[in-house]
């Protein structure tokens, strides 16, 4: 009995401390304030880490996309699409359902992920910082190796057909996802899904406007150097 009371008191004290340390509202892109539960978001991310990496940096040689630093509205929308199965994702079926991931958790994990801005490179040895911070930044870094192909020709195709939505620097905006700093294997797999109508892409005509295999190779070469 005594042990139970002590445990209860300890958990109440921990709860009070957590409430005092509640994060201040974050300002979202667009200026809105949002009081999300960052600790809950971080906690949920532990389930996702097995595939997407501890900080959402992606993994599996690019099979699992980088999901850190994306706009929270895009992340939340994709999670809802997985839940309703309007976007098929067999590996995520057990995680993206209402029991495992109710709407509040969708928002918390999306907003938590949006706060992690993946650096383009691991910190250089010249920069002074403590070992833990260095390790954390090295893990968060997403650096895309250069793809073969003519990046200059790819840039022209990109600027004609992709820039309008995915932006010149490839960082995207709001619900138009970033292509820069995303794993190539994942991006290329998405094109296959779009072309076979298994995933919907806005204005598909622009995406498929006749492009040869050579054109695609050049587009990937350009996208792969956007983060250099
Ligand atoms: C078992 C592995 C696995 C786990 C666990 C997992 N995912 Fe995924 N996730 C994937 C795969 C594979 C894809 C890519 C699917 C595709 O190719 O369309 C993906 C795609 C995504 C995307 C879409 C990214 C984009 O650019 O459109 C988001 C967002 C996402 N996952 C979030 C999460 C979150 C949040 C969790 C934890 C609640 C999670 N995932 C857990 C395997 C996983
Ligand atoms: C009219 C706007 C628009 C244009 C033009 C456009 N896209 Fe997209 N693209 C989107 C949107 C919106 C999505 C997210 C789809 C969704 O909601 O599931 C997307 C998603 C993608 C994805 C998947 C990214 C991810 O994280 O899952 C890839 C890859 C992609 N686009 C490549 C391209 C390429 C390459 C071009 C040019 C040849 C292009 N897009 C042109 C709007 C656009």
Automatic annotation (TrEMBL):
Signal peptide (from-to): 1-19
| UniProt keyword list | Electron transport, Heme, Iron, Metal-binding, Signal, Transport
Pfam families from the entry?
Cytochrom_C
Please name the GO terms that the record assigns under molecular function: electron transfer activity; heme binding; metal ion binding
Give residue ranges for domain Cytochrome c.
36-117, 149-227
Query: SUPFAM superfamilies from the entry?
Result: Cytochrome c
- UniProt name for this protein: Cytochrome c-552
């Amino acid at each position: 009995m005594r042990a139970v009371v002590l445990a209860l008191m300890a958990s109440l004290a921990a709860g009070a401390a957590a409430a005092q340390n509640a994060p201040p509202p974050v300002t979202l892109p667009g200026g809105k304030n949002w009081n999300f539960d960052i600790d809950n978001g971080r906690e949920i991310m532990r389930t996702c880490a097995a595939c997407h990496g501890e900080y959402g940096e992606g993994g599996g040689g690019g099979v699992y996309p980088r999901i850190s630093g994306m706009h929270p509205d895009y992340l939340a929308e994709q999670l809802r699409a997985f839940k309703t199965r309007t976007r098929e994702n067999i590996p995520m079926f057990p995680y993206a359902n209402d029991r495992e991931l109710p709407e509040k958790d969708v928002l918390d994990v999306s907003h938590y992920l949006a706060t992690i801005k993946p650096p383009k490179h691991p910190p250089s040895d010249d920069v002074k910082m403590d070992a833990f911070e260095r390790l954390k930044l090295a893990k968060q870094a997403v650096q895309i190796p250069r793809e073969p192909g003519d990046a200059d020709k790819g840039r022209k195709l990109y600027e004609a057909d992709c820039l309008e939505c995915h932006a010149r620097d490839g960082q995207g905006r709001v619900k138009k996802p970033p292509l820069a700093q995303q794993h190539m294997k994942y991006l290329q797999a998405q094109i296959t899904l779009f072309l076979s109508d298994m995933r919907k892409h806005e204005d598909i005509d622009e995406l498929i406007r006749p492009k040869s295999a050579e054109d695609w190779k050049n587009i990937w070469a350009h996208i792969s150097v956007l983060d250099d």
